[in-house]
Design brief:
Length: 592
């Protein structure tokens, strides 16, 4: 480290216990935290962010490339960094036990966690611990985590206990502060939305071993609240100093008609949703609790997420002040400051913050028009990044199920919750994998699925779509599929020559799937009876293939190769098949 640069900064290496809490495998550590008791009895909360702007100078080649990329793109099995690896994973990354440059925000908090004072500035820090979320949560819960914290290895027992006690106090205090911060935002109308993040677990050879839903922990919310708090205060600082060209992030009010599906679905269970304001929406969602079905509230919050507008970056000189508001977080000012290694907007915010706390040269600051153009570029890049991340997730989901026999592999038969009704089926959400899609109850021939036997059968009948249920009637009886009913579906991969492989959900039973109720029940309950309809179709296809092969043998050993090269279009990709695939795609598009 440069001696002169260190002298210009506030040195926190000896005075503060600083640590990071990140997902497993994280290399680009943007943020670290600290909390300590001051001599006057107050608390000091610190958020310390990698000082990327020190290494990436305006209009340098690195800066120009980072601006063009705008964001790091995370795919299921890899990532494409915004910054070179030497910066993102080394020089800028706040890894444990190494001196690093940081930009810090330090708050002095009173007895009720009210802000007494705030300080912004450049610092020198040394992170004492690099922890994973699971280890931090386990430490808070009083579990043994010595093996999960590398920095404690090789120390004598007494030293370990002293350090653990100190770290335990810090995490507990952080959680307490975060609870207070969250309650403040929620009292102001913050909306707690829902989304299922599914991680792809890869083996040593990059093969897909499992799809694992991310388990929500309180420590996740703790870190998120601290980052939101820092972003909010930095937004206030830079917008006060540069009222005409500060980079902020706003979340516009959603269009009321976008809530129609949410309101309709809640009414199916006897609940009402007030969407007149974010506060009323949040309170309504909190009341929508079905103690018999914990997925009900989660799905409603997911539907609320679908109704939201996209949050966007903007220059303060381009919008009126009443449009600065962040609807979801219920904050009057908000920006992104805490992830400059992976977001270019944060780099700009760091430069604005440094300019706002010093009287240095501001000739390289962007004006309102230039900044607004940059914001629009970043918004486009962020949207593209979200699309490709979603496509990557869907691709790996298809690859996971591709080589699994849907009739025999237990991971293919799952519980699903109905959250939408269509003229020929229902839309379902699968909690196990965080997937959503269509389940058809009527096919192109007009046959409907009947579940009165041991296995579903496609027979003549009628399907009627009502306000809150789809009713299927056959000679065997009537079956109702109500909103938020749990049904059992089987996941398979549908191949197509027109588009990429996609997942199909086929009805197995109109009752819930029991295998995932609890670990004890999983070990004692037998798997539900599996439908043989797919097996029959496959058997028929195999018979036809065998018959075809016999005919080909009479025409020569290389007939198959010649037919593939010069023959007519396969019957599976006829015009009828193409139109049918487009029709099926249309059903799923209605859901999005």
């Amino acid at each position: 480290m440069d001696v002169e640069e260190v002298a210009r900064r506030r040195d926190l290496r000896q005075s503060h216990l600083i640590f990071s809490i990140d997902p497993k495998g994280c290399e680009d550590v943007d943020d670290t935290l600290s909390v300590r008791q001051l001599s006057n009895g107050n608390l000091e909360l610190g958020v310390h962010i990698a000082d990327v702007s020190y290494f990436v100078k305006p209009n340098s080649l690195t800066d120009l490339e980072a601006k063009a990329r705008a964001t790091t793109v995370y795919l299921a099995d890899r990532r494409y960094d915004m910054l070179p690896g030497i910066l993102s994973a080394d020089l800028c990354s706040l890894i444990g036990g190494v001196d690093r440059y940081a930009v810090s925000v330090l708050w002095e908090l009173g007895n009720n966690y009210e802000v007494k004072d705030v300080w912004f500035g450049r610092t020198v820090i040394r992170s004492a611990y690099k922890m994973f979320y699971e280890a931090a949560q386990a430490l808070h819960d009083g579990k043994d985590v010595i093996e999960d914290i590398p920095e404690l290895q090789g120390l004598d027992k007494s030293t370990v206990q002293i350090k653990l006690k100190e770290l335990h106090w810090c995490i507990d205090k952080l959680m307490d502060i975060a609870r207070h911060l969250k309650s403040q935002r929620e009292s102001g109308g913050a909306v707690q939305l829902e989304g299922v993040e599914v991680q792809v677990q890869l083996g040593d050879k990059k093969e897909i071993e499992d799809l694992i839903p991310k388990q929500p922990l309180e420590i996740h919310e703790t870190i998120a609240e601290c980052m939101i708090f820092a972003n909010h205060w930095v937004a206030k600082k830079i917008s006060q100093t540069f009222p005409s060209y500060a980079l902020l992030r706003h979340h516009p009010l959603p269009h009321q008609e976008h809530f129609d599906n949410l309101v309709h679905c809640a009414k199916a269970k006897g609940f009402s949703i007030d969407t007149s304001s974010n506060k009323n929406l949040a309170e309504s969602l909190d009341r929508c609790i079905d103690h018999r079905d914990p997925d009900f509230n989660k799905i409603l919050r997911t539907l609320a997420t679908y109704a939201m507008s996209n949050a966007l970056y903007f220059s303060t000189g381009s919008l009126s002040r009443d449009q600065y508001y962040h609807y979801g977080l219920a904050l009057d000012r908000y920006t992104h400051f805490t992830s400059p290694i992976r977001r270019y907007a944060d780099v700009i915010v760091h430069r604005l913050l440094m300019a706002s706390i010093s009287n240095g040269d501001q000739s390289e600051m962007l004006g309102n028009k230039e900044l607004q153009d940059l914001c629009e570029h970043i918004n486009v890049k962020n949207r593209a990044s979200q699309y490709v991340q979603r496509a990557s997730q869907e691709l790996f989901q298809s690859l996971y199920f591709k080589d699994k026999d849907p009739d025999t592999h237990e991971s293919c038969t799952v519980d699903a919750v109905i959250f939408g009704l269509r003229a020929n089926g229902v839309l379902v959400f699968i909690p196990r994998y965080g997937m959503k899609g269509a389940v058809y109850l009527r096919d192109t021939k007009g046959l409907v699925v009947d579940t009165h036997g041991e296995t579903p059968q496609w027979i003549a009948g009628s399907l009627v779509k009502g306000d809150y249920a789809v009713t299927v009637t056959t000679i065997h009886g009537t079956t109702k599929y109500n909103l938020f009913d749990h049904i059992t579906v089987r996941i398979s991969v549908s191949s197509s020559h027109a588009h990429s492989q996609r997942l199909r959900f086929n009805l197995v039973d109109n009752k819930p799937h029991q295998i995932y109720q609890s670990e004890d029940e999983q070990t004692t309950n037998q798997l539900p009876v599996r439908t043989n309809i797919v097996q029959e179709v496959r058997k028929e296809a195999e018979n036809q293939m065998a018959s075809s092969e016999n005919n080909e043998d009479e025409l020569g050993s290389n007939f198959s190769e010649l037919k593939l090269k010069y023959g007519q279009t396969n019957e599976n990709i006829s015009m009828y098949s193409l139109l049918q695939q487009l029709r099926e795609m249309g059903l799923e598009e209605d859901m999005l």
